[in-house]
Design brief:
- The complex is a heterodimer.
- Chain A is mainly alpha-helical.
- Chain A has 23 helices and 2 strands.
- Chain A has a two-stranded antiparallel sheet with strand order 1-2.
- By secondary structure, chain B is mainly α.
- Chain B has 2 domains: about 55 residues; about 80 residues, no CATH class.
- Chain B has 6 helices and no strands.
- In chain B, α1 runs antiparallel to α2 and α3 packs antiparallel against α4.
- The longest helix of chain B has 26 residues.
- The radius of gyration of chain B is 24 Å and the shape is flat.
- The chains are: A mainly alpha, B mainly alpha.
């Protein structure tokens, strides 16, 4: 408890508090603009946080993450355009509600559900994170090697439609992570005589390119010259019926549980949490046929589920140093930017920071109640009147300024562009990008851990699988990789046999 | 379409893998083993993707680019912008980009674009140069003025 009371006094100081309020508003705004997403926004933000206090930087990440997950519901309800992938399920009942003149009510439900899901998730993070960190004190280099491989493998096989492409993406990330001077031997690898490559490719530069440029190029392709008209964004107030809000409580509880469970699993994101919560609400309903036709329970389940995924996804990231999704990977990047090593030692060496970040995830969820209300929603909806073609250059400028200020080098801008164009085409051929980033983050940890383990065992490879914890982790990792491949082969054989 | 794209994708990764493994042979000791293993695994996975695609009985259509002309324009203007950031200066190049990109994509409301450019660039200046004091590429126009003065 002292862990959190100490952290709270820091979090409630001027800097982190204003950062949380500003970033939550910014997050709602980003989520409300189709084409922009939280990953892109946080990737753009990270380079700017170099000179900031880590708690302020993390407050901004927390605010944008929680705020944008709610913001995505605004166009999903008003226009049936999901602002973020996690708000696809919100369109099912949100838009039919808006269609029959209940847009304001649907937005209120989305706002409250997002806040409740976020609060439940933050409480899960605050209770389970420190417990998991305590377990990891028994880990040695061999265990860390397997944890890194497990994290990458599970994300690689779960995201995208083809596990082979997922694993290939992770290996590509690992390979990119080897560029530069090898810390253990001093050998320069894949530098081609270029001094700017000696320090390796900057993670943030590649990340901004991979995640921010493809949506910008897609916006350019869509070529929206008009934006929305004022008439399309008109909202009328519809009062709640008696007992209607109380009826949402079981849905909120169920969706919070599902979202937290999905968040802890590596590779599964807010969109999966929203779909599962939506389906669970539909199955539990007395009138499942009303779902998809404007049932408020559908909006509540989807929005509560996708926000309940947020803080829970930070549990393995903060406790083990293993990011379960790209936003968690970005949080780890934010920590490394400030010279902090993610993992169990973080809880012992920087309790104020870890506890503070957890509190920030909680406070920004509460802020959605206050900042995401009907008035704010009306204001944010107005930004959709901006023509999409004007967003293309403005985002590109933000990307460039963010990347340039990291090292003050023009070459980084070209690396960012190259990564972005590669990312655009790779996404088109169903090649998942998240494992590339995870590979870049976890690669150095995996390599150093395996080499340390082999140094300790004097080159005995069996050391990697003979300790009880490492043996279990190795078995689980193999299972995680092999099982989807077996399933894929079986699926292929079935139609052939038929 | 999908089949051909996957075959090419697999072959590209076979190439990257072989190249990485070959490069790694020149690195001393354990520092070469790890990238060599990764290179070989990548080669294997790339070959698997290609072979899988080759054996696929059907070929689904999958567009690599939805609007080639718009994408090409955006890519070209982005590249020109990045090339001009250092010689022209950050603010000059960025202001030109906010005007040029929408115009190149077919937006014809120049006053609207100018207003957005002015408001956005003022915000960027306030945040990055005044508030955060980040050093950005120097403006050519200021250097010319200094020389002229």
């Amino acid at each position: 408890m002292e862990f959190y009371t100490n952290a709270l006094s820091h979090v409630l100081s001027f800097g982190p508090l204003t950062a949380m309020i500003g970033a939550t508003l910014l997050g709602v705004f980003i989520g409300a603009l189709p084409g922009l997403n939280p990953v892109m926004a946080i990737a753009l933000l990270l380079p700017l946080t170099y000179s900031m206090d880590p708690l302020v930087a993390l407050a901004m990440v927390a605010g944008i993450y929680n705020g944008s997950m709610y913001g995505g519901a605004i166009p999903a309800i008003l226009l049936r355009i999901p602002g973020t992938p996690a708000s696809i399920a919100t369109t099912f009942d949100g838009f039919p509600m808006a269609d029959r003149g209940e847009a304001s009510k649907a937005l209120k439900i989305a706002c409250w559900s997002s806040a409740i899901g976020g609060i439940a998730s933050a409480i899960a993070l605050m209770t389970m994170g420190p417990m998991l960190a305590r377990v990891t004190l028994f880990f040695g280099p061999a265990e860390y090697f397997w944890i890194a491989i497990f994290g990458m493998a599970s994300v690689a096989v779960m995201v995208g439609s083809d596990p082979v492409k997922g694993i290939m993406a992770a290996v590509l990330g690992l390979l990119i992570g080897t560029i530069g001077i090898d810390n253990l031997s001093g050998q320069a690898r894949f530098t081609f005589g270029q001094t700017w490559l000696l320090g390796g490719l900057d993670l943030i530069v590649v990340l901004v390119g991979l995640y921010a440029l493809p949506p910008v190029l897609q916006l350019a392709e869509k070529c929206d010259l008009k934006g929305l008209s004022a008439a399309q964004l008109k909202l009328a107030d519809v009062p709640f019926k008696k007992g209607e809000i109380r009826g949402l409580i079981p849905t909120w509880l169920r969706a919070s549980g599902i979202g937290i469970g999905v968040g802890i699993l590596p590779g599964a994101g807010g969109n999966i949490a929203a779909f599962l919560s939506y389906n669970a609400a539909k199955n539990a309903s007395d009138d499942p046929s009303s779902f998809g036709k404007g049932n408020p329970q559908g909006v509540a389940a989807a929005e509560c589920g996708n926000n309940a995924d947020n803080a829970a996804s930070m549990i393995p990231a903060l406790a083990l140093g293993i990011p379960g999704n790209v936003v968690a990977a970005l949080v780890l990047s934010a920590l490394t930017i400030h010279g902090l090593q993610p993992g169990p030692q973080l809880f012992h060496q920087n309790p104020t920071l870890v506890g503070g970040f957890m509190m920030e995830m909680l406070i920004t969820s509460v802020l959605i109640f206050a900042l995401g209300g009907a008035v704010a929603t009306r204001v944010f909806a107005q930004f959709q009147r901006l023509p999409g073609v004007l967003l293309v250059p403005t985002i590109l400028i933000l990307m460039c300024v963010g990347v340039y200020v990291i090292n003050g080098r023009a070459i980084d801008l070209w690396v960012m562009l190259a990564a972005g164009f590669a990312g655009y085409f790779l996404e088109k051929v169903n090649f998942p990008l998240a494992p590339v980033i995870l590979g870049m983050i976890l690669g150095p940890m995996a390599e150093q851990s395996v080499r340390r383990a082999l140094l300790i065992s004097r080159g005995d490879m069996t050391e990697l699988v003979t300790r009880p914890i490492s043996a279990v982790l190795a078995a689980v990792t193999v299972l995680v990789i092999v099982w989807p491949l077996v399933k894929m082969v079986r699926r292929r054989r079935k139609p052939a046999e038929q | 379409m999908e089949k051909r794209q996957d075959i090419v994708l697999g072959l590209i990764f076979v190439g990257i893998g072989i190249f990485a493994a070959w490069m790694a042979t020149s690195y001393k000791g354990a520092s070469g083993t790890y990238p060599m293993v990764l290179g070989l695994v990548l080669t294997l996975l790339g070959a698997t993707v290609s072979i899988k695609a080759l054996r696929q009985p059907t070929d689904q259509p999958r567009a690599l680019v939805n609007a080639p002309a718009k994408l090409g324009t955006a890519a070209l203007v982005s590249a020109i912008y990045v090339a001009l950031v250092i010689p022209l200066g950050f603010y000059t190049a960025s202001f030109l980009l906010v005007l040029a990109m929408p115009l190149a994509l077919g937006f014809r409301r120049l006053v609207y674009a100018l207003t957005v450019a002015a408001v956005f660039m003022s915000l960027i200046y306030l945040v990055f140069s005044v508030l955060l004091e980040k050093p950005l590429p120097r403006e050519l126009i200021l250097s010319l003025n200094a020389v002229g003065g």
